[in-house]
Design brief:
- With 248 residues, this protein is of the alpha+beta class.
- Helices cover 29% and strands 11% of the residues.
- It contains five helices and eleven strands, in the order E-E-E-E-E-H-H-H-H-E-E-E-E-H-E-E.
- The strands form five sheets. It has a three-stranded antiparallel β-sheet, covered by helices on one side.
- The termini are far apart.
């Protein structure tokens, strides 16, 4: 039995040639070796190969199976005939190809001195000289720990919050301009539109942008404050027209 340097490998070889895939012991990423044609298979006579093909097709193609039959036979043998009855010479070719494939692919992996796993670059911590299972990358681990702590804090705050009194701050999560997730800043991460809170013209509470009605008093957020004298559209809450001074 052939032994791979990684814990898992896949044999992609056919009667016509040899190819192998080796997998990272941590994440399972695979790396394929170059396909190598079998010289033994190439030495077989055309008549022998055609005979096997004609038999497998059951006479469906009859005497018309020529070069096309050879091409189809190459593929059918590759899938259905898993090396049964191959010659000792072919077997030696197979073992040599496996060793060569390992030499070709092994540079894509690094062996962890702590757990002896062979891992790809994605699972290798260059700073520590160990795999990321034995020595997680500091930045990734800190970010992961920070995310877990944040989730715990949010859950703890939500359990004790009296949400009906507005203890949990309302936030604009979707940009009212472009409709995409807005982020946590004062401006949208995608289009740069301002994300400040709107004030309810009725109760004065801060309400997230894009809402048509106040979540505190139920009043509509868009109330016309047009001056009856000059028609100027004043901002909500103004008591006198900013253009002509008329009382609103």
């Amino acid at each position: 039995m052939l032994h791979s340097f990684t814990r898992n490998h896949n044999d992609l070889s056919t009667e016509a040639g040899f190819q192998f895939e080796f997998f990272c012991d941590c994440c399972g990423n695979g790396f394929k070796s170059t396909f190598v044609d079998s010289t033994t298979y190439g030495q077989k006579s055309k008549s022998e190969r055609f005979g096997r093909m004609a038999s497998s097709l059951g006479g469906l193609l009859g005497g018309k199976a020529s070069d096309l039959g050879w091409a189809l036979e190459r593929g059918s043998d590759a899938i259905n005939n898993r090396f049964s009855g191959e010659s000792p010479q072919w077997r030696r070719e197979y073992e040599a190809a496996f060793d060569k494939a390992q030499e070709e692919v092994k540079p894509e992996f690094k062996k962890c001195p702590a757990c002896n796993k062979w891992v790809c670059d994605d699972c290798w911590n260059e700073d520590e000289g160990l795999c990321t299972e034995c020595a997680p990358r500091e930045a990734s681990y800190v970010a992961q720990a920070h995310s877990r702590a944040m989730q715990r804090n949010i859950d703890e705050a939500a359990e004790t919050a009296t949400v009906w009194k507005g203890d949990i701050e309302s936030r604009t999560t979707v940009c009212p301009s472009c409709g995409k997730p807005s982020g946590k800043g004062k401006f949208c991460n995608h289009c740069g539109a301002p994300l400040g809170q709107n004030k309810c013209p009725s109760c004065g509470k801060e309400v997230a942008q894009g809402l048509a009605f106040c979540g505190y008093c139920g009043s509509p957020m868009e109330v016309s404050n047009k001056c009856p004298e000059c028609g100027f559209e004043n901002e909500a809450g103004m008591k006198f027209c900013g253009k002509c001074g008329t009382k609103l």
